[in-house]
Amino acid sequence: MFVVGDGRPCLWVSAGTPGEQGPIAREGAVEVILPDTHRLRRGSGSRTVWARVEVWGPEYACFPIPAGPSPSAVFPQAPAQPRRPAISAERCLETYLVEINEVPLLSPEEERGLGKRIHQGDSAAREHLIRANLRLVVSIAKQYNERGLALQDLIAEGNVGLLKAVEKFDPEMGCRFSTYGTWWIKQSIRRALTSTVRSVRVPSYMSEIISKWRMVSSELTYQLGRPPTIEEVAQEIGVPTDNWPILKRTIHSSSLHPQVSLDVLVGDYDSAGNSKELDPEETLQHADMLARLGELLNVIDERESKILRLRYGLEDEDGQSMTLKEIAGHVGVTRERVRQIEQEALRKLYGVMGAD
Predict the structure, then answer these.
(1) What is the pLDDT, as a whole number, of residue 159?
(2) pLDDT value at 125 more than 90
(3) Nearest-CA neighbor of 2 among 81, 67, 55, 54?
């Protein structure tokens, strides 16, 4: 193709084998006649400015042919567009922070109203509650900075948790959305860190042990009526005692979705016959679990939280738990009512943990 002076596109015609009426030029399936009297002539390295072409009939057309050594000269190169400067990730983050800071915070009454509208399927209320809490995600994400993920990635993962919290928020629970959403946001960020930062590859034989571990653990939980200790499961599947420390670390590092229970969170990690103190790694894990439990207890009703703290020794510095009768005298209700509140509170906690 080439373009004539007035901008009309035309076919580029290349010379072919001479025929009876003159050289025949072909372009695809189109044949045209170039009369001898109007053939292209070369002179001083340039071409004639036009040629008359007969297309199997009396009609004639004038095709301007620009001077130049090759057909490529016919196609003028479009001027290069200046490249727009790349926008840095830091610049994007700054813009994002400015935008979310423009959204006003919500009052408790506004949160409850939006929560009720969300349960009725109001997408505008859902969007409003999300945008009003994006700053909460950034605040929490900064607490996990420099742990293996960039701040932008931490914010993105936290936003995933925020979306879950918005979908599951019950305005009748009696707590602020920021308190409820914090649990989901932190859990989403922690799981992303665990999945991304973990660099130790678990061997195939250890994966088989972990698979058997989970199956045996479920069976023992049913038989014992409580979550089994690591030692009990290890004995059941025949793991040598010397390998227990390695197995503990492997299970902890490979478990992205651990089953959490209050007994495990506040109980001893070692068997009853082992009186050694927790090593630093286990101490940090235990502290982290207690912190997560504290966040969970902030999600439920204040009285339910109080009863669970007393029941599992979280109110006492020495970790001493109280009986149902003692709690009943402390909070001013019957023993049976304390038991009912405890069961209802546990049901709520397990619902929050298992809904993910």
Answers:
(1) 94
(2) yes
(3) 67
Sorted by where each begins, the domain ranges of the chain are 2-74, 90-197, 220-249, 288-356
Per-residue pLDDT reduced to its tens digit, 309-352:
888 777 765 667 788 888 888 888 998 998 888 888 877 776 66
The angle that helices 280-297 and 177-197 make with each other, rounded to 10 degrees, is 150
Q: Which of 112-116, 187-191, 219-223, 303-307 has the weakest average pLDDT? A: 219-223
**Which candidate, 144, 139, 143, 145, places its Cα nearest to that of 162?**
139
Tokens of 316: 């006492």
What confidence score (pLDDT) does residue 293 get? 66
Task: Decide yes or no: CATH 1.10.10.10 for domain 288-356.
Answer: yes
- Specify the CATH architecture of the domain 90-197: Up-down Bundle (1.20)
pLDDT band at 265 (very low <50, low <70, confident <90, very high): very low
**Secondary structure of the chain as H, E, C letters:** CEECCCCCEECCCEEEEEECCEEEEEECCEEEECCHHHCCCEECCEECCEEEEECCCCCEEEEECCCCCCHHHHCCCCCCCCCCCCCCHHHHHHHHHHHHHCCCCCCHHHHHHHHHHHHCCCHHHHHHHHHHCHHHHHHHHHCCCCCCCCHHHHHHHHHHHHHHHHHHCCHHHCCCHHHHHHHHHHHHHHHHHHHHHCCCCCCHHHHHHHHHHHHHHHHHHHHHCCCCCHHHHHHHHCCCHHHHHHHHHHHHHHCCCCCCCHHHHHCCCCCCCCCCCCCHHHHHHHHHHHHHHHHHHCCCCHHHHHHHHHHCCCCCCCCCCCCHHHHHHHHCCCHHHHHHHHHHHHHHHHHHHHCC
Q: How many CB atoms lie within 10 A of CB 234?
A: 21
pLDDT at 256 over 60: no
Q: What is the pLDDT of residue 162?
A: 94
Query: How far lies 195's CA from each of 9, 249, 311, in Å?
Result: 58, 15, 34
